[in-house]
From TrEMBL:
Source species: Streptomyces pratensis (strain ATCC 33331 / IAF-45CD)
Keywords attached to this entry: Amino-acid biosynthesis, Metal-binding, Methionine biosynthesis, NAD, NADP, Oxidoreductase, Sodium, Threonine biosynthesis
Protein name: Homoserine dehydrogenase
Any one biological process term the GO annotation gives: threonine biosynthetic process
Catalytic activity from the UniProt record: L-homoserine + NADP(+) = L-aspartate 4-semialdehyde + NADPH + H(+); L-homoserine + NAD(+) = L-aspartate 4-semialdehyde + NADH + H(+)
Reported cofactor(s): a metal cation
Function field: Catalyzes the conversion of L-aspartate-beta-semialdehyde (L-Asa) to L-homoserine (L-Hse), the third step in the biosynthesis of threonine and methionine from aspartate.
Domain ACT: 352-446
Record-stated family: Belongs to the homoserine dehydrogenase family.
Involved pathway(s): Amino-acid biosynthesis; L-methionine biosynthesis via de novo pathway; L-homoserine from L-aspartate: step 3/3; Amino-acid biosynthesis; L-threonine biosynthesis; L-threonine from L-aspartate: step 3/5
Length: 450
């Protein structure tokens, strides 16, 4: 065992950083045994140095993160500040000054991963970021290392704990959206600005990282199609239930059949209750990986929160420290080639469309014609009259398109399609909006996982 301790600079001591510092202290002997050298917390950079931080030697705390990473004796920098700047400059400076880096910062990796990897390679240092995707779940290293000899074609998962928590609460306990969000924030799942969670930015960043590692390419967050959960209503959730489905925010990354391009998208979707992702509750995450030789793999576990995320950070810290002790580095990024990211219009899937229509003869025929003109095949149609008082269904159409319309006034028409390109669906919706008899498009949701 080497006796000189490896020195670690911790940048950020919030939800995640506090737990990283605690585990480094309480598990110091175990970490030393696994690494082959003791590790020492050499400094902790925060924004508010006067705040009392339980369990942390006050003499280690500084507000000058730059000076800490430039000290010259730091072996590993753990960045758990978040955001783009100053995190990006601090990580690059760490490489320049000879340190390896562990980061949980998905926003930065999805925005500028290429440049960070290039800087790590230039200075011969490690950049590890297991905690950036799906909290405690080992996913980055299995994709980057264990599956490096296979060909991954699809990654589909729930990668944001906050939104899964909110949708789960809305579904199972009938909680309101705001109430569920407040609870997720109090539990430390949500980002500093929860807009990143509920508008899908956090999941989109994770999708960009996953697509990059899975397909050995580079995908930036701006290339990921993104829709959040703010428009998901109790009616959508009830409608999903009627179809034997539940609503989840999914991240889906796919390699095209010809292998020449990829797609990456994040949006709410209905999935059948029989699908394993349907039973992923609260802030848990789960990711399906489909690889040519391995088949289907599922990764499941806590996707957010201080302690689970710190577990992933500590795993990376051990790996980077081991590499330093062994005078080596982890897998580099030079084998990556850039595949184009296809637009959302090329994605083929099924849709659940809820329309408010005039409840009179001929409406269903008009609506069906629009779908046919756009070459979008209808699977099922369900009509619910607004005049029935109780809200009971008054007409159920069979698969494939028979017609039954009656009464007058307004009705709600729910159309579920067969698989069709997203561009064709957009064209259909645009044409539907122009029909006099269509009073509004209440919701559009993709149906996945069948
Ligand atoms: N929370 C979670 O469940 C997960 C978080 N992550 C990622 O981990 C990272 C950290 O998240 P989290 O711990 O929740 O964030 P917090 O907001 O709880 O903590 C951020 C920390 O960074 C410090 N900080 C902010 N700006 C600066 C600065 N300019 N210089 C020095 N320190 C600064 C803050 O200081 P101060 O304490 O003084 O305010 C605080 O200690 C993010 O990238 C996040 O996306 C990843 C997976 C899960
Ligand atoms: N806000 C994120 C935290 C982990 O990445 C989430 O809710 O999943």
């Amino acid at each position: 065992m080497r006796t000189r301790p490896l020195k670690v600079a911790l940048l950020g001591c919030g939800v995640v950083g506090t737990e990283v510092a605690r585990i480094m202290t309480t598990h110091a002997d175990d970490l030393a045994a696994r690494i082959g050298a003791p590790v020492e917390l050499a400094g902790v950079a925060v924004r508010r140095p006067s705040k009392v931080r339980e369990g942390i030697d006050p003499s280690l705390i500084t507000s000058d993160a730059t000076a800490l990473v430039k000290r010259g004796d730091i072996d590993v920098v753990v960045e758990v500040i978040g955001g783009i700047e100053p995190a990006r400059t601090l990580i690059t400076t760490a490489f320049e000054h000879g340190a390896g880096v562990v980061s949980a910062n998905k926003a930065l990796l999805a925005e500028d991963g290429s440049a960070l990897h290039a800087a790590a390679e230039k200075y011969g240092r490690d950049l590890y970021y297991e905690a950036a995707v799906a909290g405690a779940i080992p996913l980055v290293r299995p994709l980057r290392e264990s599956l490096a000899g296979d060909k991954v074609n699809r990654v589909l998962g729930i990668v944001n704990g906050t939104t899964n928590f909110i949708l789960d609460k809305m579904d199972t306990s009938g909680a309101g959206y705001s109430e569920a969000l407040d609870e997720a924030t109090a539990l430390g799942y949500a980002e500093a600005d929860p807009t990143a969670d509920v508008e899908g930015f956090d999941a989109a960043a994770k999708a960009a990282i996953l697509a990059g590692i899975a397909f050995h390419t580079r995908v930036k967050i701006g290339e990921v199609h993104r829709e959040g959960i703010t428009e998901v209503t109790a009616a959508d959730i009830a409608s999903a239930r009627r179809m034997g489905c539940t609503v989840k925010l999914l991240a889906i990354c796919e390699r095209a059949a010809d292998g020449r391009s990829v797609t990456a998208r994040v949006h709410p979707a209905m999935i059948p209750l029989s699908h394993p992702l349907a039973s992923v509750r609260e802030a848990y995450n789960a990711v399906f990986v489909e690889a040519e030789a391995a088949g289907q793999l599922m990764f499941y576990g806590p996707g957010a929160g201080g302690s689970p995320t710190a577990s992933a950070v500590l795993g990376d810290l051990v790996a980077v420290c081991r590499n330093i002790v062994g005078a080596t580095t982890g897998p580099g990024e030079s084998a990556y080639t850039r595949l184009p990211v296809s637009p959302m219009g090329d994605v083929v899937t099924r849709y659940h469309i809820s329309l408010d229509v005039a409840d009179k003869p001929g409406v269903l025929a008009q609506v069906a014609t629009v779908f046919a003109e756009q070459d979008v095949s209808i699977d099922t149609v369900r009509q619910q009259s607004r005049n029935s008082g109780s809200g009971d269904e008054v007409g159920i159409e069979q698969s494939g398109g028979g017609r039954r319309v009656g009464g007058s006034g307004e009705a709600s028409l729910v159309v579920v399609t067969h698989r069709a390109p997203d561009a064709a669906l957009s064209g259909t919706v645009e044409a539907l909006r122009k029909l006099d008899t269509v009073r509004g498009v209440a919701s559009i949701m993709r149906v996945e996982g069948e």
